[in-house]
Design goal:
This protein is an alpha+beta fold. The protein has helices at 78-85, 114-122, 137-147, 164-176; strands at 4-16, 24-32, 43-47, 50-57, 61-73, 91-97, 106-111, 126-131. Helix 1 packs across helix 3. The radius of gyration is 24 Å and the shape is globular.
């Protein structure tokens, strides 16, 4: 099984806060494999080959869907995917960036690997998560089980920096003679 590529739409929501330190915060609230139908949007435009649909925009809240964004799944990430899909609530991780002059963050990358998301965060990136849609659970679980092989357990060697254990076993051998 080779790499799998899916695509979908990320829904971002800005909620105002009542703190003096921040006007509000952006949160990824959902991921849809297809453009969310049945939702009424106030405006829809194409930006960089992606559709941006503003679902609502008022003084307290803003919400928009953006996509299609690629979700690439590689066999090398099988361990991180396995950890995610075997968790009680599998998550989708979204790397966001807010470029200069933009009024909202842009989703740049998607992953379902906990390890890849952790590497992004270690690199100082802004990563948000949302629940993974349940129709994707079984295919991802099958992918992870087909590619993930736990590391073999190795014999643990005792940490003996002074060589005391070696000396005591050598002395026992000398005493037997």
């Amino acid at each position: 099984m080779e790499a799998i590529e899916l695509s979908g739409y990320v829904v971002l929501e800005w909620v105002s806060s009542q703190t003096p330190w921040s006007d509000g915060s952006w949160q990824v609230t959902a991921f849809h494999v297809a453009m969310p139908e049945g939702l009424s949007w106030t405006s829809r435009s194409e930006v960089g080959g992606r559709t941006v649909a503003v679902l609502y925009d008022d003084a307290r809240r803003k919400c928009f869907a953006m996509g299609p964004l690629p979700l690439r799944i590689f066999p090398a990430e099988a361990e991180g995917i396995y950890l995610n899909v075997t968790a009680p609530q599998p998550m989708l991780f979204v790397l966001l960036r807010c470029d200069e002059g933009e009024s909202w963050p842009t989703p740049r990358h998607l992953t379902v690997s906990q390890n890849e998301a952790a590497r992004w965060m270690d690199g100082g990136e802004w990563v948000e998560s949302c629940p993974l849609p349940s129709p994707l659970w079984d295919p991802l679980r099958g992918f992870a089980l087909a590619h993930y092989r736990p590391e073999r357990k190795r014999r643990v060697r005792r940490n003996d920096p002074l060589g005391i254990l070696k000396r005591s076993t050598d002395e026992e051998k000398d005493g037997d003679e």
